[in-house]
Amino acid sequence: MNVSRERVKKFLLFLLSHHTEEYAHRTLKVRFRGRELRLCARCSGLTIGFILGIIVQFYVWKWLYVPEPLAMLIVTLFLTPALVDWGTQSVLGRESKNWLRVATGCLLGFGIGFTRFIELSRLLLLVSFFYVVAVIIVFFRVKRKSTFSEDYKR
């Protein structure tokens, strides 16, 4: 099996950024050992937020207990901005900015940390709700793109 260096490079780019070259503007450029890496802006924010959430919960609020209803509210409030940003971008064709992607990603990552205070069955319900919303967004995104391509062909 012959795999070209260029194909491996494109695969690694997609793995780190989740975007094709057409959408490279949705990534952050990072220089590493003289090479340029592109990282997904929202995933970078998510990682930063998740690490900050772990640090805050285990070192700052070491003995903190968050009641389950409050934890569910916090998770919902922190996950919603990323969903709204991604959803309006996908469905309405609005173009977001990288600073907004990183900020909503940070909230998303920080909010995920609070899931440890939620009982598994309720957490599965909450995740299922967000999953259904994401599926609806993808449905309307596909519908918008197919309508756009049909109008473009005419």
Describe the structure.
The chain is mostly helical and 154 residues long. It has one domain. The protein has 5 helices and 2 strands. The protein has a two-stranded antiparallel ribbon with strand order 1-2. Strand 1 and strand 2 form a beta hairpin. Helix 2 packs parallel to helix 4. The chain is globular, with a radius of gyration of 19 Å.
Task: Let me know the number of strands.
Answer: 2
Number of domains: 1
Instruction: For the largest sheet, list the strands in their spatial order.
Output: 1-2
- Please report the distance between the alpha carbons of the first and last residues: 42 Å
Report the sheet-strand fraction.
5-15%
Report the total helices. 5
What is the overall silhouette? Answer: globular
Helix % is over 70%
Order of helices and strands: HEEHHHH
Major sheet summary line: 2 strands, antiparallel
Radius of gyration: 19 Å
A few lines on this structure:
Helices cover 70% and strands 8% of the residues. It is mainly alpha-helical. The chain has one domain.
List keywords for this structure.
154 residues, mainly alpha, two-stranded antiparallel sheet
Secondary-structure topology with pairs:
Layout: H1 5-17, E1 27-32, E2 35-40, H2 41-60, H3 68-92, H4 98-113, H5 120-153
Antiparallel strand pairs: 1-2
Helix pairs in contact: 2-4, 3-4, 3-5
